[in-house]
Amino acid sequence: MDFLTIIQVLDSTVRLATPLLLACLAGLYSERAGIFDIGLEGKMLMAAFFSAAVAAVSGSVWLGLLAGIASSLVLSGLHGLASITFRGNQLISGVAINFLAAGMTVLIAQDWFKQGGRTPSLFAGGRFEPINFPFAEALSGVPILGPIYSELLSGHSILVYLAFLAVPGTWWVLYRTRFGLRLRAVGENPAAVDTAGVSVVGLRYAAVAICGVLCGIAGAYLATALQAGFVKDMTAGRGFIALAALIFAKWRPWQAMWACLLFGLLQAIALRFQNIDLGGVVIPVQVMDALPYILTVVILAGFVGKAIPPRAGGEPYVKER
Amino acid sequence: MTLMKSLMGAAASLALTAGAALAEPALIFDLGGKFDKSFNEAAHNGASRWAEETGGKYREIELQSEAQREQALRRFAEAGSNPVITMGFAMADPLSAVAADYPDTKFVAVDVTWLDAPNVRQIGFAEHEGSYLVGMMAAMASKSGTVGFIGGMDIPLIRHFGCGYAQGAKAVNPDVNIVANMTGTTPSAWNDPVKGSELTKAQIAQGADVIYAAAGGTGVGVLQTAADEGILSIGVDSNQNHLHPGKVLTSMLKRVDVAVYDAMKAGADVETGVFTMGLAEEGVGVAMDDNNASLVSDDMKGAVETARQDIIDGKTTVVSYYENDSCPAVSF
C-alpha cells in the first residue's frame, strides 16, 4: 500500500465521517440534556430532502441549506413537544420521527417532482462546491506534506470544515459556558436545575433545537455536497451509526470526533479494499461493515471502561410528584 | 410504417374485443414501488402503453410489505383478474402456494424461472448477454485499460450482471483490468448513493475510467460522481443516458416493459411456461440515443452489432453466473 493510497483512503474517511460527526454532535446536545434521540436518522433524511428540493427549485444551495435546517427543526420541535411538553416516551417519539421522515419525503417528492420519490439532479449553484486551499495545486508536488495538504485537507466542501470546527465549539459550549453547565446538569439532575430557578423545559428545548440544526446540516451535506439530489432512504442507517459513535465516545465531543473518524475509516477501508487479505486470513467486507456495531456492543458490555449515559436521560421531568 | 400501423391497429382492436369479453389484467409491483426509475417503473410503462393503445384497464397494487404478497395474489385471482402479473424474484414462493388454487387464472412472473406450475408464465432475462455488450463498449472506450463494476446488494443476480460485463470487457481486451465492488449485503445497499460515490472515487483512484453501475438508487451516486470526475459510466435496467448527457456511455436495457406489454396484450390466452428474453428476443440490449451519440464510435457500434449477432447465432457463448455459481472472468 503506497502513500498516495493511504491519503486517498483518509480523504474518503473525512467525507464519510462528516455526516456521522454532525449527527453525533446533534445527538450529544440532545442526550446530554436528557432527551434520548433515535430520530437522528429521520431528521437527516428530512433535511436531505428539503435541502435538495429547495436547492433544485431555487437554484441556491444556501436557501437549500436553510430549508433543510428548518425542516429538521420542525421534526425536532415535534420530538420536543412529545417528549418534553407531553412527557411521552422519547424512544417511541424518535421511532415515529424516523417512520414519518421515510414516508413523507418520498410522498412529497413524488407529488412535487414526479420523478419517483427523487429530486431532480442539482447543477452548479445548487451544490456545495469543494473549496481548494491556496497553492494546493502548486504544493502537491512536495513530498509527504504536499499530498496531505492538497488531497486530504483541501478540496472539501465548506460543511466539512464547519463540522470539524463544531467539535471544539461543542466542547467550549458544554464545558466553558454557563449554558453548557446547565445543559449538562439538566441531563443529570433536572430537579437541582429547577431548584436553582432555571427552566428545565427551556433548556431541553434549546438542546433539541441545536440537535435539529446540526442534523439539518448533516442532511444537507449528504444531498447537496456529497450527492446532487435526494434519493429515497439515502441516509442508509447513518443516524444509527452516529448513535453508536455517541455511545462509543461516552457522550463527549472530542471522543465523538475520533469515534466518527474511526467508523468513517472502517467504511473507507471496506469500500477501497473489499475483502482484505491479512497473510492468508481473508477478512470479508461484511465484517468491516459490522465493526462499528460490534465495537459499540463491546463498549456497552463494559470491556473498555463503562459507558454511563446521562442519568436523567429518557425520563420526562415532572416538577412535583 | 403503414404496415406497422395497421398491425398495431389490428392488435389493438383484437385486444379491445378481448378486453370486453374477458377479465382485466392485474399488475403487482414489487417493494421498490411503481416509480423506481428502473425495474418496476419499466413494468408500469409497459402497462400504460398497453392501456393507451387498447383503451383497456388494468388493476394494480404496490406492495408495502412481505406479508402482502400472497394476499394480493389471492385478492386479484378471486376478483377474476386474468392474467395476474407479478414483479420480482421474491414472488416465487407466494406464487407456488397460490397458483395451484386458481387453475383457470393465468399468472405471469417476471424474474422467476424455476417454478413447477402449469398456469404460470415465467419470464427470465439474459442479463449477462446485455452486460456482455456493455462490457465490450466499456473496454473499447477505456483509455486506461481498467474498467469498473459497482453492484448493489451482493446477490447472485447482481453477480450475474457483473460476470457478463467482465466477459465482454475481456473479449475486447484480454489484458483489461476489472475492478468489481458490491455496495453491501443488506437491502439498504440499493439506496445508498453516498457509498456509491465513494466506491466510484475508490475505483477511479485504482485507474478505472468507465464504470458500470447495477445498483438501483445507489447507481445514481455512481453516475453523478463519474460525471463530476470526468469519466464515463454505464446505466442499467432503464435507459439512463439522459441523466448526464454526454457522460453516460450507454445503458444496459432490460425490457421488462416489453414483457409486461406482451403479457397484457395476450390477455387470458397468454402462453404459460418458462421463457427467457435474451438478445434475440430483444429482452436485453444497449441504449443508443442522442445523449450518447458523441461517445459511441462507429467501431464500437460495429463490434457490438457483430457480437450481438454472434451471441444470437450461438457462435459466442456468454457464461452465466448461475451455471456453477462462479465467474470465469472476474472474482467478486
Number of alpha- plus pi-helical segments of chain B: 11
**Percent in strands of chain A:** under 5%
The helix-strand sequence of chain A is: HHHHHHHHHHHHEEH
Q: Largest protein interface?
A: A-B, 33 and 29 residues
Strand tally of chain B is 12
CATH architecture of the largest domain in chain B: 3-Layer(aba) Sandwich
**What class would the helix/strand composition of chain A place it in?**
mainly alpha
* Radius of gyration from the alpha-carbon trace of chain B, in angstroms: 20 Å
CATH architecture annotation name of chain A = Orthogonal Bundle
CATH topology of chain A: ABC transporter involved in vitamin B12 uptake, BtuC
CATH class category label of the largest domain in chain B: Alpha Beta
Output the CATH class name of chain A: Mainly Alpha
Key features of this structure:
heterodimer, A: about 325 residues, mainly alpha, ABC transporter involved in vitamin B12 uptake, BtuC, two-stranded antiparallel ribbon, about 0% strand, B: about 325 residues, alpha/beta, Rossmann fold, 2 domains, 6-stranded mixed sheet, 11 helices, 12 strands
Helix and strand arrangement:
The complex is a heterodimer of chains A (321) and B (332).
Chain A: H1 3-32, H2 40-58, H3 61-85, H4 90-113, H5 136-139, H6 145-153, H7 158-176, H8 178-188, H9 190-195, H10 200-226, H11 238-248, H12 253-273, E1 276-278, E2 281-283, H13 285-300
Antiparallel strand pairs in A: 1-2
Chain B: H1 2-21, E1 26-29, H2 39-54, E2 59-62, H3 68-78, E3 84-87, H4 92-98, E4 107-110, E5 120-125, H5 127-141, E6 146-153, H6 156-172, E7 177-184, H7 193-205, E8 210-214, H8 218-229, E9 232-237, E10 248-254, H9 256-266, E11 273-277, E12 284-286, H10 298-313, H11 321-324
Parallel strand pairs in B: 1-2, 1-3, 3-4, 4-5, 5-11, 6-7, 6-8, 8-9, 9-10
Antiparallel strand pairs in B: 10-12
